[in-house]
Amino acid sequence: MGRHQPGAGQYCPISRALDVLGERWTLLIVRDMLVGTTRFNDLARGLPGLSRTLLAKRLRHLQRAGVVEREGTAYSLTPAGRALEPLVFGMAEWGARWVFGEPQEHELDAELLIWWMHTRLDTTSIGGDRQVLHVRFRDDPKRFWIVVDRGVPSVCTADPGFEVSLTISSDVRSLYEVWLGRIPLGSAMRHGSIEIEGPRHVVRSLGDVLRLSPVAPAVLGA
Question: How large is the angle between the packed helices 172-179 and 110-118, nearest 10 degrees?
């Protein structure tokens, strides 16, 4: 582990842990790395409120503390970093039970939601080498396409020109709530807050294609 930098000034393991993890954004960086983000640009895109300068500072801090290591352009968690998984997802369970209520307008970011969703797709049931999901928000002018080419997902904000496998129409709030486990997908479809267009077998498999957020089990269990 890295050399201890005094913070709260108390000889206590909680105090020492907070010296490493207590700064704003730090645990969100760890959260994203726990679910597979390894590149600086991808970390920055998944944390849009965090400046690139501060992200670099936080990563250097975590490297010095022995939580993160860097090899070339990729970052990864050390054993100490991976050991934070029960803490991070334990916070998700606590948050889901005690403080996670209705979404606030400033928390609803369509582009961030699509970025989170694009790594959580299982398109094997659709078939073919390339699958394209078009997402249209009724309350946001942006349009998004998630292209999965031979298993590699990417996000486009302009029409990539490929045949669309499935179109999802929704308001931003409803898709957030479905993806985070607050509202069942079937219920949202029955009430019309989410509409799906595409071949029948693809529409029927949407529940398998769109895997929910890693924190959805905590929300569902709250």
Answer: 30
